């Protein structure tokens, strides 16, 4: 009788947790207007709702591109085969990684930055990481639009493979959102989260094919030995960059196995991230 009662209590707790998670999801979906408002505030804060703000948002990565091109394109001769192609290759890498880096870095402090609102107003806190991710998505889309426009102006070819670009953007958005939930959760309880994330993203930057060719293809010599490539491509950023570059730069259909792997990783990150965030939401005010 005791064992049956205990099992019943466990089932009741698990059911309550499921209903709590579903309730949190419904609350977020009902707050679409709040998310829209927060995205608008984020864009205005960076003056990205104005032309000059958008231009600076492009100039900033262009400065990085200039440095990387000089060091790696010319200094290490990564651009020797085709300088214009390497500029496009490098641009895609910088734009994609800045989206990833911007979300996870800002997520670490996004709840503390809105401490006053969290303590005063009752609302689903998940709207904060979501609005942050949407704001950074705007930057990515703006940068990709300009890059594709410039590539068209200089006569670089495109093909039907470009239809895979929305797939890459969607996968990256959900991956970043899931990681954003996790990092935002940790940022509430651990003050050093932002510093740790900064170190990890810096390591990931150099471990990803942003300014170098990982594999030998299209006339370029890769730096990663072929026998290690399958392990290297477990890095989700490397996989995402492969889809982006195949769609935009090399006019090739991306590897479907890679897409399936990234879809699984993004799905797991999103579900686990939201569940962890939603279950900890009731304790946020105590630690902020």
Explain how this protein is built.
The chain has one domain (31-287). Helix content is 75%, strand content 0%. It has twelve helices and no strands. It has helices at 2-30, 32-45, 51-75, 83-113, 115-120, 127-153, 165-189, 193-206, 229-232, 236-248, 256-280, 284-287. Helix 3 (51-75) packs across helix 4 (83-113) and helix 4 crosses helix 10 (236-248). It is elongated, with a radius of gyration of 21 Å. It starts with a helix and ends with a helix. 32% of the residues are buried.
The arrangement of helices and strands along the chain is HHHHHHHHHHHH
Tally of discrete structural domains:
1
End-to-end CA span: 44 Å
Which structural class should the secondary elements be placed in?
A: mainly alpha
Indicate the percent of residues in helices.
over 70%
As a percent range, the share of strand residues is under 5%
- According to DSSP, the number of beta strands is 0
Low-pLDDT stretches: 1-16
Nearest-integer average pLDDT: 82
Task: Work out the radius of gyration.
Answer: 21 Å
Shape: elongated
Count the helices. How many?
Answer: 12
Main beta-sheet strand count, sense and barrel state? none
């Amino acid at each position: 009788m005791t064992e049956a009662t205990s099992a019943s209590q466990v089932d009741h707790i698990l059911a309550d947790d499921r209903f709590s998670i579903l309730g949190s999801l419904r609350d977020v979906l009902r707050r679409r207007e709040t998310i829209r408002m927060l995205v608008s505030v984020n864009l205005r804060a960076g003056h990205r709702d104005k032309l000059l703000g958008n231009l600076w948002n492009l100039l900033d990565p262009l400065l990085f591109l200039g440095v990387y091109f000089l060091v790696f394109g010319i200094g290490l001769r990564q651009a020797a085969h085709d300088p214009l192609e390497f500029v496009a290759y490098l641009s895609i890498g910088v734009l994609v990684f800045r989206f990833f880096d911007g979300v996870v870095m800002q997520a670490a402090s996004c709840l503390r930055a809105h401490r006053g609102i969290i303590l005063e107003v009752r609302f689903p806190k998940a709207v904060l990481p979501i609005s942050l991710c949407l704001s950074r998505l705007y930057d990515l889309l703006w940068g990709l639009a300009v890059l594709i426009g410039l590539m068209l102006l200089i006569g670089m070819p495109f093909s039907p493979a470009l239809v895979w670009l929305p797939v890459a953007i969607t996968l990256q958005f959900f991956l970043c959102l899931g990681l954003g939930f996790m990092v935002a959760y940790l940022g509430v309880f651990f003050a050093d989260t932002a510093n740790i994330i900064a170190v990890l993203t810096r390591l990931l930057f150099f471990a990803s094919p942003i300014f170098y060719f990982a594999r030998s293809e299209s006339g370029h010599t890769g730096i990663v030995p072929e026998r290690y490539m399958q392990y290297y491509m477990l890095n989700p950023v490397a996989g995402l960059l492969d889809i982006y570059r195949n769609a935009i730069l090399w006019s090739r259909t991306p590897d479907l196995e890679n897409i399936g792997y990234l879809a699984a990783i993004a799905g797991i990150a999103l579900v686990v991230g939201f569940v962890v965030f939603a279950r900890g939401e009731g304790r946020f005010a105590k630690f902020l």
